[in-house]
Design goal:
With 327 residues, this protein is mainly alpha-helical. It has 11 helices and 4 strands. A two-stranded antiparallel ribbon has the order 1-2. A two-stranded parallel sheet has the order 3-4. Helix 2 packs parallel to helix 7 and helix 10 crosses helix 11.
Length: 327
């Protein structure tokens, strides 16, 4: 049995032939209209058959103005004439109704496309970030930073891995999450947060072989531990925190700290069931640590630029004095 759209009265739906019901049922948009939608009676009168009169008195309050109104929506403005004809005419047969529904769907798709294009422009997205999803009853292409952000959030959620890495069963359902804002946490949760971030910071400098006060190298330079042969990691501070190169480093650091914590006896605060932390928490703190190191990297590069500028100015002054003496 075909499902009746909520905006169509049961007695009207039952009076229609199965072929018409099937045509309407194949159009998802009709099911999106609420039950109290103001449907033009002329459309409902189509159940009386092709011979039914299609001339009904115009009611401005019910049917809207005779002339199309200007719209802020470009797609609506471009299709205003067609939409007006649909509202104030009765389909003569199933084929005509199907054509009307098809046009409605095409108008809707065009509207969604233009809306997505405007959103993508505002978000400053790029064409190479494209995803496809099913929305509003039809498949549409989305271009925008919002979809990129959603993919990253899903990818971050997957970093937790299995139950062990999620610390499942190690904290209560109402436990405080250490990744929340510090000001919202209790003293115990703040203590755990500080301990975990300290471990992440120490491990970050270790795997990168950059002690405090040391200049951050370029990611293009390969550095190796001569004793162990280990390749030191170097974050790319010219990229963003979500850059794939940087995320590999965050994941590596989180894994190393997680392994260390698993092989040691935890403090009472870290074992507190009212405090939630897991491997994903370590990954999040690694990202926060990167942001702090990026400010350090910027300061180092600013000093280099300042020194180079000073040297260049000295050369210019020397050259100017030399020219003046030679005159």
């Amino acid at each position: 049995m075909l499902r009746r759209p909520p905006a169509i009265a049961p007695e009207v739906w039952d009076s229609w032939p199965d072929s018409l019901k099937k045509t309407i049922a194949e159009t998802p948009e009709v099911y999106m209209a609420p039950a109290n939608s103001d449907i033009d009676p002329a459309l409902l009168n189509s159940s009386n058959g092709p011979s039914a009169s299609r001339c009904t008195p115009h009611d401005a309050d019910r049917d809207g103005p005779h002339q199309p109104m200007l719209s802020a929506n470009p797609s609506a403005a471009n299709n205003s004439t067609r939409g007006h004809n649909i509202r104030n005419s009765t389909p003569a047969n199933v084929e005509e109704l199907a054509d009307i529904l098809y046009n409605m769907r095409e108008d809707q798709r065009e509207h969604y496309k233009q809306t997505d294009d405007r959103l993508a422009h505002l978000e400053g997205s790029h064409p190479d970030h494209q995803t496809s999803s099913t929305t509003r009853g039809c498949t549409t292409q989305h271009w925008g930073g919002s979809n990129i952000a959603r993919r990253r959030r899903r990818r971050d959620a997957c970093e937790e891995g299995n139950d062990a890495e999620s610390h499942t069963g190690q904290f209560d359902h109402d436990a405080e999450d250490v990744t929340d804002a510090r000001g919202k946490l209790s003293a115990t949760a703040r203590e755990v947060r500080a301990d975990l971030k300290r471990l992440i910071l120490t491990k970050f400098r270790h795997v990168c072989n950059v002690s405090e006060g040391k200049t951050w190298p370029s990611p293009d330079d390969e550095r190796k531990n001569e004793t162990t042969g280990e390749i030191y990691l170097t974050p790319n501070f010219e990229a963003t925190v979500n850059d794939d190169h940087n995320r590999v480093i965050f994941k590596k650091i989180a894994h190393l700290v997680w392994e260390e914590l698993g092989s040691t006896t935890l403090s009472n605060s870290m074992s507190n069931r009212k405090v939630k932390w897991n491997k994903q928490s370590l990954f999040t703190f690694a990202k926060d640590t990167y942001r702090g190191f990026k400010e350090e990297w910027k300061a180092q590069n600013d000093r280099k630029k300042a020194a180079a500028k000073n040297t260049n100015q000295q050369k210019n002054r020397w050259s100017q004095r030399h020219k003046e003496v030679g005159r």
